Amino acid sequence: MQRETALGRASRHLVRALDAWLRRQQGIFVFSEDPDCIFRLSLAAAQAPMTFADGTSVAPGDRLLVIHFWNERLPVVPPGGPDLHWARTMYRKAIASLRLLAGFLQAQEELAGVRACGADAAGFLTGPALDTGAVFPRLGFEMLRPHAQAGPWGRFVEFWENLYSWMLVWAYNPSTLRGKTPWTLERFGLWISRATLLERYGRPPAADEAPAGEKVAAQEACGR
């Protein structure tokens, strides 16, 4: 294994320090100390309308809960890239985090007006498709791809957002970046309505539900 240089270690430290500062500026908070939780949250107002498959409509100004990955808690990708063990661990922790999120949303009266949860994220393009497989839809999220509608200014802003996303992955989980560059990132929205979140994750899982879903999703995540 190639040893990291002092400059590389210092650069990762700087990126992590910048990440911590930005979290404070954006009001990102921890909602659960459960060791399986890999999400943090912030509150935001919708900037554009959204319509979900379950009939939920979100209007500009409606309250949203924005999901942020808890980078320090994400499973470390093996040097050879994602494998089935990593994918199953990631899927299990995502399910646990969504159940914790559903419980938090139900318990906080001040969040009664939140219409949806999710985030604008960055994914790698693989040919014409985003490198997200079918995992996020399997979790109940719906994907929006605003890139095609973005004007020149929107694409300029998107470039810097993508570069920062790439830097975060490089700082926390560099094995994920094998063969990928910032230029192949595209931003997209991943959102789940409040109703769907509570219906799917606000109840205990069936006895055979989690293992079966975990196996299929792990295979999809690894392209197998």
What does the model show?
- The chain is of the alpha+beta class.
- It has one domain (6-221).
- The protein contains six helices and eight strands.
- α2 links the parallel β4 (63-69) and β5 (116-126).
- α2 (84-107) crosses α5.
In short:
With 224 residues, the chain is α+β, with helices and mostly antiparallel strands. 41% of the residues lie in helices and 19% in strands.
Q: Using DSSP, what is the number of strands?
A: 8
Q: How many distinct helices?
A: 6
Whole-number average pLDDT?
79
End-to-end Cα distance, whole Å, is 27 Å
Reading the helices and strands in chain order gives HEEEEHEEHEHEHH
Structural class: alpha+beta
Label the overall shape.
globular
How many domains make up the 3D coordinates? 1
Q: Quick one: biggest sheet?
A: 6 strands, mixed
**Helix fraction by DSSP (H/I, runs of at least 4):** 40-55%
**Global Rg:** 18 Å
Q: Tell me the fraction of residues in β-strands, as a range.
A: 15-25%
Low-confidence stretches: 125-130
